[in-house]
Specification:
Elements (H helix, E strand, L loop, with lengths): L9 H5 L13 E8 L3 H12 L4 E4 L15 E3 L4 H5 L6 H11 L5 H9 L1 H10 L4 E6 L2 E4 L5 H14 L4 E3 L3 E8 L2 E9 L2 E12 L8 H7 L17 H8 L4 E2 L4 E10 L2 E4 L1 H5 L3 E3 L14 H9 L6 E6 H6 L1 H8 L4 E3 L2 H8 L3 H17 L19 E13 L2 E3 L5 E3 L5 E7 L4 E2 L7 H17 L2
Parallel strand pairs: 1-2, 1-9, 2-6, 9-19, 17-20
Antiparallel strand pairs: 3-5, 4-5, 7-8, 8-9, 10-17, 11-12, 11-16, 13-14, 14-16, 15-16, 18-19
Helix pairs in contact: 2-7, 2-16, 4-5, 14-15
């Protein structure tokens, strides 16, 4: 029967809207809810579950790992058995002092605490099968076969997560931190089925940074708006606003780390940090080195690169570096590298003066031989360009991580505007301003993730 025959106005009927009542989802309870399934969040969740807690782990993306997936090359650690056996020695106190020289705002006591627990964190990761045992320098340890550090860690931790009692909920975004009379009681989350509350005795924020969020970068670090990001797609920074809504404190939000080794091709931004870590050097479009190309402050290094003519510089390596890194081999297979059997041929492909490039490499070979580099480089002098073929890849700065975040106290509890801390709300990983400014991000995730779990278990 048509509408007219039923006595209804067809045009009026077309304009009607129908409200679909979505069935309300039931709230749930647990001992601890962890927001963010990157390296830090997974570490907290596993430790708590191993000690008998009922843990819910929520992740707004459809996969785990977060920015840890993108950790390219090395785990920052000092005075480990691997480095001792290879003669790459520096004391923890000396390393802390060196780091404080380049970043006087760093919390030296917390850095010392981190490094003192590095061996334990590496042992735990390697017990899961990561095989992070190859020292690159007196503060860097890489995977034995040169494969991606982050991929190895996330694969191992994902397997452990599957075998644990942790309740993992993907595609689930935290939209509110719940409070009652000033106390945190859980989080409100949203998934494809709607919103519901997760009520918990403890809440851990491990939600990552903001450098992949266009609006967040414009808000917090406008100086760097428009640069490509090599961080995780989910690092968009919504959690920071939620923390402010309940009276939490954000600090150093304008401080970010640039990645000096970003190669952009076909709309994909890839970190080529492994090329420098394996001993590569940086030259400009005149074929000349212009700085310490392994300077520890990546943002300063990136600024030096921007000062050069043109939109990019080159990283140079030889076959020795390529053989040592599966990650670089993968990029070679993707066509990222120029390749040639002689430096002169490589210079022609790069479009740089051949005489300059040859002289640059000869000077660097002497630096490797004597240990005296004209630009002051002392780390990762591991190739001397004596093993052709030679490779070059274009690189320019991009956003890597945010270094400020949610201000936390010595126990990683979130601080309030009045200077006190929430009793049961913690922040860890890139989302937290822990005073270390991301100087050892993967180590921070693992070591401080366990520390947060220990704090919760001890309450």
């Amino acid at each position: 029967m048509c509408l007219d025959e039923a006595g209804l106005d067809a045009e009026e009927w077309k304009s009607r809207t129908v409200e679909v009542q979505q069935e309300a989802k039931e709230d749930v309870t647990c001992d601890t809810v962890v927001v963010g399934a990157g390296g830090a969040g997974i570490r907290v969740a596993l430790e708590l579950a191993d000690n008998g807690q009922n843990v819910i782990l929520v992740e707004k993306q459809s996969m785990v790992g977060g920015a840890t997936n993108l950790a390219a090359t090395y785990f920052v650690a000092v005075d480990t058995t691997y480095q001792q056996e290879d003669g790459m020695k520096i004391s923890i106190d000396d390393y802390v002092a060196q780091t404080a020289e380049t970043n006087p705002d760093i919390d030296s006591d917390r850095l010392r605490l981190l490094l003192e627990n590095s061996q334990e964190s590496l042992d735990w990761l390697n017990s899961l099968g990561t095989n992070i045992t190859r020292p690159l320098s007196n503060y860097q340890v890489a995977t034995e076969d040169g494969s991606s550090l982050g991929a190895a860690i996330v694969k191992a931790m994902s397997s452990a997560l599957e075998q644990s009692s942790v309740d993992l909920r993907l595609d689930t975004e935290a939209v509110e931190i719940l409070t009652e009379n000033g106390a945190v009681t859980g989080v409100r989350v949203r998934d494809a089925g709607g919103e519901y509350s997760i009520l918990a005795d403890s809440v851990v924020l491990a939600s990552g940074g903001f450098v992949s969020g266009t609006e967040a970068v414009e808000k917090y670090a406008p100086e760097w708006a428009g640069l490509p990001s090599t961080s995780a797609a989910g690092s968009t920074g919504e959690m920071f606003g939620l923390v402010e809504q309940i009276g939490g404190v954000l600090s150093n939000m304008d401080v970010v780390r640039l990645n000096p080794s970003v190669h952009s091709e076909n709309g994909v931004n890839s970190s080529l940090s492994a090329a420098r870590a394996e001993g590569g050097i940086i030259v400009n479009q005149q074929g000349l080195r212009f700085c310490n190309d392994y300077y520890p402050d990546y943002t300063t290094l990136s600024k030096w690169m921007v000062e050069q003519e043109g939109d990019y510089v080159y990283i140079l390596i030889d076959q020795t570096a390529m053989d040592n890194s599966k990650r670089l081999q993968g990029f070679k297979d993707m066509g990222y590298f120029l390749e040639a059997d002689t430096l002169e041929e490589l210079a022609e492909k790069m479009g740089v003066p051949a005489d300059n490039l040859v002289k640059t490499v000869e000077a660097y070979q002497e630096a490797v031989r004597t240990g005296g580099d004209e630009f002051g480089r002392t780390n990762n002098l591991s190739i001397d360009f004596s093993n052709p073929p030679y490779y070059a890849v274009t690189t320019s700065p991009g956003l890597q991580v945010s270094l400020g975040g949610i201000l936390v106290d010595d126990t990683m509890r979130v601080q309030k505007q009045d200077g006190t801390s929430f009793d049961n709300l913690y922040a860890v990983g890139e989302c937290a301003d822990d005073g270390l400014f991301g100087c050892a991000p993967t180590n921070i995730n693992i070591t401080f993730g366990k520390m947060v779990a220990d704090q919760i278990l001890g309450r």
